[in-house]
Design a protein that fits this description.
The protein contains one helix and eleven strands. It is mainly β and 182 residues long.
């Protein structure tokens, strides 16, 4: 109900925003720094028969819209690379590596994306093609990709016979410092 009334007049701007395991920063804050947190990738949500399209861009502004009832919606304004121009904006090599050209930006009147839709990437200069950058996808912080079956959780791994081995120590065999007597 509060969303239908539109946002309040006050909008908050941020230079950085942490969301779903990613730490985003706007492009101007990344300048002259060793780290790069302004790269954004968004996968389009198409119908079942359509291929999904991945958009790449640079985060230029972070806004948070406020609605009645305390609801807040963070938005990212980005400069998007023209991914529809396969010769000037984006290239994929035989190994599946994606290169983009920041000189070929998408002309759009919809530069915003919801923060929850964005994943983080960073761009590495391509030494073979001047002006192009390779896209490197980031994993969310504090998450780990554990293959199935490599769990350390004993609660879900069955024992050999299905029963826990109860090993009871004879207290007379343990010294006062916790070591076994000979």
């Amino acid at each position: 109900m509060s969303l239908s009334r539109g946002p309040l007049k006050n909008t908050t701007c941020f230079s950085g925003y942490d969301t779903h395991g990613f730490r985003f920063r706007i492009e101007s804050r990344d300048r002259n720094r060793c780290t790069q947190n302004s790269g954004v990738a968004v996968i389009s949500e198409g119908s079942m028969d359509e291929d999904h399209v991945e958009y790449y861009g640079v985060l230029t502004e972070i806004l948070e819209l406020q609605f009645l009832g305390g609801r807040r919606v963070p938005l990212f304004r980005c400069k998007w690379v023209d991914i529809f121009n396969n010769s000037r904006g984006i290239k994929t090599d035989v190994y599946g590596l994606v290169s983009i050209n920041f000189k070929c930006l998408l002309k759009t009147d919809e530069p915003f994306v919801l923060a929850r839709q964005a994943s983080q990437v960073f761009f590495v200069k391509d030494n073979l093609i001047k002006g192009w950058h390779l896209v490197v996808k980031m994993q969310p912080r504090d998450t780990y990709d554990v293959p199935p079956g490599d769990s350390d959780d004993e609660a879900i791994e069955p024992d050999d016979d299905g029963y826990e081995d109860e090993h009871i120590e004879d207290p007379s065999n343990i010294s006062s410092c916790g070591k076994r007597k000979p």
